[in-house]
Design brief:
The protein is α/β, with parallel strands linked by helices and about 230 residues long. It has helices at about 10-20, 35-40, 60-70, 85-90, 105-120, 155-165, 175-180, 190-205; strands spanning about 1-5, 25-30, 45-50, 75-80, 95-100, 130, 135-140, 145, 150, 170-175, 215, 220-225. The chain has a five-stranded parallel sheet with strand order 2-1-3-4-5, sandwiched between helices. It has a four-stranded antiparallel sheet with strand order 6-7-8-9, with helices on one face.
Length: about 230
């Protein structure tokens, strides 16, 4: 999943980016509201984390502009302003949730998971586990399992499988995979995506008889039961 963090305090922005990256999200950072609007117009983000206090325009105006320009993903607003009136203004501008500073990273992560779950239409009880056929991925323990066997994955393999699971039965292109599993600086001429797909196949498919990861010629890849 690809997230945009809009925060002008460099230290805070890097703290959030580092924490989210460590649990498998691809994270870009913008230090201004207008910069965020530009990045959202050029890239596909699954979620925007938006600080209210920005140097060029406030986050409430930024949220309003993002909605006006067609961004439909979740917006999590961060603010030091804790009054009900402030929260109402943020929600009215298009924010989906509100987190007051100071906050713990665990709480931020829980809000992110909840918003992404809501975006994907998953049931509340399934927030931490993605399933397809006999394959499951636990987002909290960072473990994969198929046919009751644990599968050891690297952080990047885990992120790639999570993206395929969240888009099960929908073909995804190499560009989409690059944007959501790697980052904005990814070299699109590289064959690293194909290498990681092959690594995943050796762990997810080969030992279990039935293939779930399929190549879609001319497009990319898809996770589904049949070719």
């Amino acid at each position: 999943m690809r997230i945009l963090v809009v925060e002008d305090q460099t230290k805070m922005a890097q703290f959030v980016k580092k924490g989210l990256s460590e649990v498998g999200y691809v994270v870009d950072v913008s230090e201004s509201g207008t910069g965020a609007e530009s990045m959202v117009s050029e890239n596909e983000y699954d979620l925007v984390i938006l600080d209210v206090m920005l140097p060029d325009q406030n986050g409430i105006d930024t949220a309003r502009h993002l909605r006006r320009d067609g961004y439909e993903g979740p917006i999590l607003m961060l603010t030091a302003l804790a009054t009900t009136k402030d929260k109402v203004h943020g929600l009215d501008a298009g924010a989906d949730d509100y987190l007051t500073k100071p906050y713990s990273f665990d709480e931020l992560l829980a809000r992110v998971r909840a918003l992404l779950r809501r975006k994907s239409g998953a049931a509340p009880g399934s927030a931490s586990v993605l399933r397809y056929e006999d394959l499951e991925l636990d987002l909290l323990s960072r473990k994969a399992r198929r046919q009751n066997q644990d599968i050891s994955l690297t952080a990047k393999e885990f992120a790639l499988l999570e993206y395929l699971l969240r888009n099960a039965e929908r073909p995804v292109t190499r560009v989409q995979i690059a944007e959501h599993v790697w980052d904005v600086n990814f070299d699109t001429e590289s064959n690293v995506i194909d290498v990681y797909i092959n690594l995943l196949r050796k762990k997810i498919d080969s030992p279990f008889g039935k293939k779930l990861i399929h190549t879609v010629v001319g497009t990319g890849y898809v996770l589904r039961e049949t070719p």
